[in-house]
Amino acid sequence: MFRRAFWFTAGAAAGVWATTKVNRQLKKLTPESLAAQAADKAVEAGHRLKDFALDVKAGMTQREDELNDALGLHQDPDRPDNVTALPGPRRLRAIENHQNDNRPKLSYNRNEDH
Q1: In tens digits, what is the pLDDT along the chain, a chain of 114 residues?
Q2: Burial of 7 by CB count in 10 Å (0-12 exposed, 13-18 middle, 19+ buried)?
Q3: Contact, 21 vs 14, CB < 8 A?
Q4: Cα 14 from Cα 2, distance rounded (Å)
């Protein structure tokens, strides 16, 4: 008698557990649930992409600062942000070389090619 009652109770419990598990899975497969899961994944991907873009921007800024230090470019306080200028002597040397350039100027006439 107790053996039958035990197996009857165990079978009923297994049936309730299986029914609950199947109903949960069916609710996960409804169109609304699938749409919500897709939206959550899209938002998560957007956050990852934003974090990646911020990391890239930080790396670019760091590398730009390293290159500016290596080239001797310094931020001029009189200029707006993100505008760098050559130091004085280099800028003057470049202008002087351009003015003292006595090489003949070659012009390119596209009509001569036809």
Answers
A1: 889 999 999 999 999 999 999 999 998 889 898 999 999 999 999 999 999 999 999 999 999 989 988 888 866 556 556 555 555 555 555 556 555 556 666 666 666 655
A2: exposed
A3: no
A4: 18
**Which residues, at least 6 apart from 5, have a Cβ–Cβ distance to it below 8 Å?**
none
Say how many CA atoms lie within 13 Å of 66 toward its Cβ.
Answer: 6
Contact 45, 53 (CB under 8 A): no
| Cβ atoms < 10 Å from Cβ of 68 | 13
Instruction: Supply 61's token pair.
Output: 């800024």
Using H for helix, E for strand and C for coil, what is the string for 9-27? HHHHHHHHHHHHHHHHHHH
Residue 41 burial class via C-beta count within 10 angstroms: exposed 0-12, middle 13-18, buried 19 and up? exposed
E strand map for the chain: 74-75, 84-85
H/E element, 35: helix 31-71
